[in-house]
Design goal:
With 373 residues, this protein is α+β, with helices and mostly antiparallel strands. The protein is 21% helix and 19% strand. Strands 6, 8, 9, 10, 11, 12 and 13 form a seven-stranded mixed β-sheet that branches. It has a two-stranded antiparallel sheet with strand order 1-7. A hairpin with a 4-residue loop joins strand 3 (151-152) and strand 4.
């Protein structure tokens, strides 16, 4: 389904006749970045009522990197508080993903490990066959000798949690999910006992029409779009991302996963590939950490859970991402630039991440407008 936008004007037509203050701000432009190309938009699209203001758009006024980062930190701090205050829901879905194993039901008021349960808590245990084969990305079947709440130097695995120190089951000697019961013991599809660290790069830019004009919402706000992939395992649309390899730092994971899931299948001449890598490096140079912590994931169990570092890389003018040629990698069924809208159906807590990013980027635009006034 293609994005429905308002009819665009010719690139030579003045756009100030119906512009509000925000539109006037957005028209302080770099004419060299105004030439855009039509983007095929597929994916989880929603209502796309947009208006076009101008055909020559440039960077929003920047009040300094330090002020911007402080502004972003306030929003992401409040967002993290909201996320950590939510009970996990996906982690209690039954049957367990890609299996016939049913979880024990756990009501909201009995999630906490300290809470009394209506019946003795004795959920089933499940380790997926792929995990029991002890691949390189998984812990040994026996957890004996593994070090929890610390960096495991032997296996080069960071077993600390962004949620703080997690409890260890005194009987089974296994980590306990910091968000409480899930109705299933074991590791499920996850390779590591305790936190399984991932990295989610969110590449965003402002939506523009064919001649580079920024598309606005009916309220006159810039409309954000991001690179989304369609997951092969669940069929859901999601942010590109993946697991942190042993000994790998987060920055390397962010770059690797974005490239693997959105550009890995491209067959381009070497000079075009080099140019593509340069543009990707430029985009991934300045990121904002949106969230670090627990993810309400379908794969979570009592003893293994997902945690992520979500980082937003925003291309303000669209100049660096315009040359991107997206092609789904092995782990993705499709990939597309996708307009954001509230409550859009995305995998796990990705909708919340995008909502925070949209609030952060749009609010900063308004903040810059107020500073100008």
């Amino acid at each position: 389904m293609a994005a429905a936008v308002a009819p665009s004007r010719s690139c030579s037509q003045s756009s100030l006749e119906d512009a509000d203050d925000l539109a006037v701000l957005l028209q302080e432009v770099d004419a060299g970045s105004a030439q855009g190309s039509k983007v095929k938009r597929t994916g989880p699209l929603g209502p796309q009522r947009s208006s076009v203001v101008g055909c020559s758009m440039g960077s929003l006024i920047d009040d300094g990197e330090a002020a911007r980062n402080k502004f972003f930190e306030e929003i992401t701090f409040q967002g993290t508080k909201r996320l950590r205050g939510l009970p996990h829901v996906n982690a209690r879905t039954s049957p367990y993903t890609r299996s016939d194993v049913h979880r024990m039901k756990v009501p909201d008021d009995q999630l906490s490990w300290e809470a009394e349960t209506d019946a003795p808590y004795d959920p089933p245990h499940y380790d997926a066959p792929s995990v029991l084969q002890s691949p390189p990305w998984a812990d040994p079947v026996s957890p004996a000798g593994l070090v929890f709440n610390a960096v495991d130097a032997v296996h080069q695995i960071d077993r600390t949690s962004y949620e703080g120190e997690y409890a260890i089951d005194p009987v089974r000697k296994l980590p306990l999910n910091p968000r409480g019961r899930t109705g299933l013991r074991g590791r499920g599809l996850l390779g590591r006992y305790g936190p399984n660290h991932a990295a989610d790069p969110v590449i965003t830019r402002w939506m523009r029409d064919d001649c580079g004009a920024m598309l606005l919402t009916p309220a006159g706000l810039p409309r954000l779009e991001f690179v989304a992939i369609k997951r092969n395992d669940t069929g859901e649309w999601a942010i590109p991302g993946g697991m942190v390899d042993p000994g790998e730092n987060i920055s390397a994971t962010l770059k690797r996963e974005f490239g693997e899931e959105t550009m890995a299948s491209l067959e381009l001449p070497s000079d075009q590939l080099d140019e593509l890598k340069e543009n990707l490096d430029r985009v991934l140079k300045d990121g904002v950490v949106v969230y670090r912590g627990y993810v309400d994931d379908h794969r979570n169990t009592d003893n293994a859970w997902m945690e992520t570092t979500c980082v937003n890389f925003h291309d303000e003018t669209g100049a660096s991402t315009r040359p991107f040629k997206l092609a789904a990698g092995d782990d993705a069924g499709d990939v597309a630039w996708t307009p954001f809208y509230e409550e859009m159906p995305l995998y796990a807590t990705h909708t919340v991440f995008l909502s925070l990013i949209n609030e952060m980027r749009v609010s900063w635009s308004l903040n810059q407008l107020s500073q100008r006034d």
